[in-house]
Structure formats: structure tokens, C-alpha cells
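Give me the fold.
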Amino acid sequence: MNIFGQGWNPFSHLDNQTGKTGSETMRMQNVASVSGNAQTVNGTALSALQTGHIFSGEILNITSQDVTILLNNQQVINAKLGETMELNIGQNMFFEVSDHQGEQIFIRPVPDLNVDGQSLAAEKALSANGFAFTERNMQIANHLMEAGMPLDRESMRKVMQQAVNFPETDVKQLIAMNRLGLPVTETNLKQFAFYTTHEHQLTQAMTQTLDGLESALQTLGETADTAQMTAVNQQIMEIFGWGQTDAALQGDGQRLPSTEQAFQPAAEELLQNDSETVLSATPKSVDQTDLTLLQTVRDSLLTMGFPEETVQEWTQGTPDYGELLANVSRYLEQGSLPETVTREFFQSETYRKLLKKGVEDEWLMKPDAMKEPKEIDQIYEKIYRQSAQLEGSFQSAGQSGQQYSEHAQNMRENIQFMQQLNQQFIFAQLPMKMNGQEANSELFVYANKKKIQQGADGVKVLLHLDMPHLGGTDILVRLKDRMLHASFTLEDQESVSVVASNMRDLTEQLESKGFRFTNEVKRAERKPSDSHAGDNIPPDAVVEEMLNQDLVTGIKRYTFDMRT
């Protein structure tokens, strides 16, 4: 086969016989033409090689115009030189067919695919299973090995098809989801990306959804008439059961798909023994934020013409914002004030703030509720159902509610993704309200559901908390029999000092319950790669542990079934 190069020589200053420099290194074109006496490459006829085909070989010789490559089948091909590419005699590397024009074939070195034991195993796996030697396929085979997954034909075909269906997705992400047993769908891909970049917190998604709700209500007030605003408000009262005698609410069929007690095993595993030693009820108190909002509500309602005595009755004591809003709505429905006041109220910032706080209280979990495992399952059901019903309320009024809907959909997708994770792991995010403050917490039991039995080291639980004052806090708890050890990892030294100073009290409480308790409190160690520029927050330890659980690293050799 007569295959010619591009006809120019950038290395005329080198020895025409050997082309070697003192280090036996020279440069070669990124695209070279191929000729030689080899009739096959990896079992494929040279003339049949397609663009993208990958093969490996050893550099036998380099001259001023040519490079000689020894293939795995001991045949030899020659390539004409062109643009610069550093090569060494004796070097093993991969080449890709970059173009095929008639009988003329052009190849280029692929430096990203280093030839080592793993890459050679990947090459053999592709050959054994009848797959083309493309750069993408080589990457898939390599990443499958790195993840400790089999290189059988079905596993490789499955990931290859997913790579075609989702071409913008990193192959590593596809393989990671397959390793974790997660369905590869567009929604799950998006949520998995959020988890790997630590942008997954349910509390954050909830905050964005509530902000979107406030914006959607403002748009409604600007575009809808009084009757439409009143109707939407009535629907919202029904959705949350405010002002109603029967607040059980069966909903309208908007339920979390396939969620029969999806998260309850997580709670049961954590709470089955001596739950009172860890969780205790926190009385609801009126914090400064509540006091400020209540005073604003009083002033606003009095200005609109509501009776002072009635307003005082509604806003005294511990606030229940949903019921407060229901009382105001009921008063307006009775026609005790002019219709203009009704419109003014539904257009007011006071209404939006009240509704936002009422929904927030419904969706944030209280610590004492964690004593009941079913409460964890129910909080997700409630958020999923009620957030979807709110969208329906805006649509019934002819409003898109886009400011709200996009965030609400992302929040529901996060909940669905957690349900998928719980098919394999015990994992839950709990949007908490602790001492009047919002906090995000995550629970993760160190066990695959298939291996849930207590191991030799006992049960391990990793809790992640995002606290307003302490910041990100990771607590690794190991429990075996009555021996309890807790390792606290915090973001800064000030938080470390605060927690460490309270360890004596915690120790006394646990020992009074019959536990032998030890602990350590330390500051999180950050690596430069842990955070983006300007971001000094360490990665979420729960997510890191879960997504990398059982991950095989440092592979030195790999075997696979040659049969297909």
C-alpha cells in the first residue's frame, strides 16, 4: 500500500539516517501519513481503518522524515513526519486515525492515553469484546477499571450507549452513577452533578424556592385582579391546612413517586436504640427575627384599618404564621373591611412575608420530630406534594409562576434523587429549624443496604450540619456495644474552641445513659483542589464518603473475562 505524507520536513537539521538528538528525542507531526508492510492493525485491515480508530505501538526508529512503529502483532508501519510532537525511541504510545482519504491514512499520537498496564488491559478488553479502538472507548474502559467495575461486553456497551445519549456528560460521572446503581437519566445526571460539586443542599434549594414564591406572589399582585388573588390565597390555605379543622390533607395525587417509606430505614437505623440520648425537643421560642416580623405585621395591619384589639390577639405569644395568615384571610372574606383593603393586603410585602414564613415552618423539621422515624419520610412527602400544588395554584390563576416553578422543580428532583440513593445507601438530608435558625443536616450510615449488619467495628454514622454560627460541621460517630466515639471536624479554629469547651457536658450526659464516650475535635484540613477560587469551604464529607464508597483506587493489575 502506497501512502504518502504531506511532503515537508521541519527537521532537516537532524541526521538524515537516525534523526536522533543527544537524548534520542525528536518531534513529530500531530498528523502523519502511514505506509508499510503491515496489512492489519489490531485485526483490522489497514485500508479499513476508520477515523477515530485507536491502536498502540512502540517507536522503533526516528529519522528526519519518518518514524517506524512496531505494532502489537509484530508488524511494522512507517509514518511521515510533520508538525512537532515529542517522541522517544523505545516509547510505547497510542495513535489515532485522524483522517482516511482513499488509500491515504493520517494518524496522530494520543498523549492523553499513557501506555501502562491499565491502558493495555483496556485495549485488550475492547478487542476481546469487539469494540472499536476509539479514544472515547479507551477512556470508558480505563474509567471502568478505575471504578473497579467489570470490563464485560454488557457493562461496556451500556456506558458507551449512555455516552452517546448524553454526549456532554463526563464519562467518569456516567460510570460513577452505574457503580452506585443510579438510573442514568437527564434529571439524575443534573442532580448527581450538584452532589459532586457540593451544590445539593436541600435547605439551599428550599430557600431559593421560597424566594421564588415571594417573587411569584409579587407578580400575581401586579397582574391579577382581586378575585384571582383571593382564589389563589384560598387554595394556598387549603394546601397547607391553615385555618381548617381537618389538616390531615390527603393531597391531589401529587406524591413522591414510588416512595413507600423510602427514607424511614435511615431514621430507624439511627433511632432504634437510646434515641433520647442524642435528640431532645427544642421549645419553640420567639427569636429577634420573629419579633421584628410580628411588629411589622402589626403596624401594617393597623395602617390598613384592621382593629387594634383583633391584631393584638392574632400576634401575641409564639407565632404560627400559617394560622395568623388564615385569621387575616378569614377576616377579609367576611367583608368587615372594604374590598380595596383586600387588594392592598394581597399586594403587600406583609402578605408575602407571612406566607413565606408559614411555608418555611411547614417544610423545616423540628428536632423533636426526629424521634419518630416516619416523620422523616413524611417531611419529604409533604414538601414534594405541597410544592407541586402551589404551582397548580398559580396556573389556575393564569400565571406561570416561573420565578417559583423552576426552583420548586429542582427541589423535588433533589428529593427524588435522594430516594434513588436510598435504594443503595442510608442517606437523608434534613432541613432543620433549630433554636429559631435554619440549618441543613445530612445523615449517612457507613453501610451499603446490602451490608447493613453491624460489622466488626460497629455502626458508623456521619452527620453533616450547616449551622449559622458554627458553619459546616462533620461528626463521625462510631458505636459498638456501649462504646461511643465522636470525631468533630469544623471549618475554623473558633468553632473548634466552642465545641471543645462543651465536650464535658456532652460526656456527662452520655455517660449518665450508660455509654463510654470518647471524642476528638479538630479543624478541617483543606487542600488547594478542594475549593474553587474564592471559595474556602471544604467539601461535604458525607457526599465524598458516599459517592466514593468502595471505590477501587491505585489499580496495579486488572483481569477480565475474555468470553463475550
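Residues 373-396 form the longest helix (24 residues).
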